Amino acid sequence: MRENPKTSLKLRYKKVLELGLIISLVLHIFLMQGFKKLERRSVQRTVSLEALQVEEIPQTEQDKSAPAPARPSVPIASEDEDLPEDETIEETFFDEFAEATPPPEPPVDDSAPVFVPHDESPTPVGGMAAIQSILEYPEIALRAGVEGTVLIYAQVDVDGIVKATRVVKSLGNNGTSEAAVKAIRSVKWIPAKQRDKPVRVWVVVPVIFKLK
């Protein structure tokens, strides 16, 4: 009985394919085993190298201990035979300390602004317009074109006279502050009142410098 060539070819192809798969599996197994051995060797080498590394320990400076306190002196008998044996040291007495006199109190500065409670604030006779009307514009400020407001602290006494002044806000070293103080002092003031009684108080006075 004759074999069919197509059937025999299929059987051979199937056997060759199975043999090739078996050979490839065997090769894969050998290769995997070889890679595992190589990984183990590399791990062992890295571990051994890390184990051989020696860390340098920084030197520590020891704190110097404080010197021991000196021993108390022990009295030694004198070899001088001329000293009497019953010689004693007289007791010393401290004089009573004289009581220290306190320093004198600082003088009271009446020119320092101090708030005094009052019912009515002081006002210039004729209002602020009276101050502005007699205000003299300094020549330096006039030429420089200086404009603005100067604030002056003024102490108005019970008789309506300005006793002291202090500059709160100036427009520079151009004579405007001096001119403002002069105008404030030249005006008669109505004193402040507390319960219908005149009192001395400080008040802030704005003086305006404006070119016409």
Describe this structure in words.
The protein is α+β, with helices and mostly antiparallel strands and 212 residues long. Among the domains are: 8-47; 123-209, TolA/TonB C-terminal domain (2-Layer Sandwich), CATH 3.30.2420. Helices cover 33% and strands 17% of the residues. The protein is built from four helices and seven strands, in the order αβααββαββββ. It has helices at 5-52, 128-133, 139-144, 176-186; strands at 123-124, 148-156, 162-169, 189-190, 192-194, 197-199, 201-209. The strands form three sheets. It has a three-stranded antiparallel sheet with strand order 3-2-7. A two-stranded antiparallel ribbon has the order 1-4. A hairpin with a 2-residue loop joins strand 5 (192-194) and strand 6. The radius of gyration is 55 Å and the shape is flat. The termini are far apart. Mean pLDDT is 78; it is low at 47-52.
State the gist of this model:
33% of the residues lie in helices and 17% in strands. It is an alpha+beta fold and 212 residues long. The strands form three sheets. The protein has a three-stranded antiparallel beta sheet with strand order 3-2-7.
Question: What secondary-structure arrangement, pairings included, does this model have?
Answer:
Layout: H1 5-52, E1 123-124, H2 128-133, H3 139-144, E2 148-156, E3 162-169, H4 176-186, E4 189-190, E5 192-194, E6 197-199, E7 201-209
Antiparallel strand pairs: 1-4, 2-3, 2-7, 5-6
